[in-house]
Specification:
- This is HAT C-terminal dimerisation domain-containing protein.
- One of its GO terms (molecular function) is protein dimerization activity.
- This protein is mainly α and 108 residues long.
- The protein has 2 domains: 50 residues; 35 residues, no CATH class.
- 59% of the residues lie in helices and 0% in strands.
- It contains 6 helices and no strands.
- Helix 5 crosses helix 6.
């Protein structure tokens, strides 16, 4: 089954988002608190697609439940048959477990 090409509007949005990420990464390092960088209206206006992500992900979790859930998954990955797994492979498996749905994979 061939893959269909994304619609022009989706492709444009992805290109715009990629452009903002690239521009942000090439911005000179800000000396100070990151919150102060984003409170600056010029910076917030310069990266409008990144600002909602910042608000969602650049904060402390309200509870420890997410951390506890990840440790619970790690416990199942590190069962008696897989005690010799490297830390790198454990991190990769935890990443995949947490992010497969984002990439459109279905877990059954």
């Amino acid at each position: 089954m061939p893959f269909s090409q994304p619609s022009p509007s989706i492709a444009d949005a992805k290109a715009q988002a990629a452009g903002q990420v690239t521009e942000y990464l090439n911005t000179p390092r800000f000396e100070g608190r990151s919150a102060d960088f984003w409170k600056n209206t010029l910076n917030a206006a310069k990266f409008p697609l990144l600002l909602p992500l910042l608000r969602k992900y650049h904060s402390a979790p309200m509870s420890s439940s997410e951390c506890e859930r990840v440790f619970s998954v790690a416990k199942y990955i590190l069962d008696d048959r897989r005690k010799n797994i490297t830390m790198e492979n454990l991190e990769k498996q935890l990443f995949l477990h947490e992010n497969l749905l984002i990439y459109g994979f279905k877990i059954e």
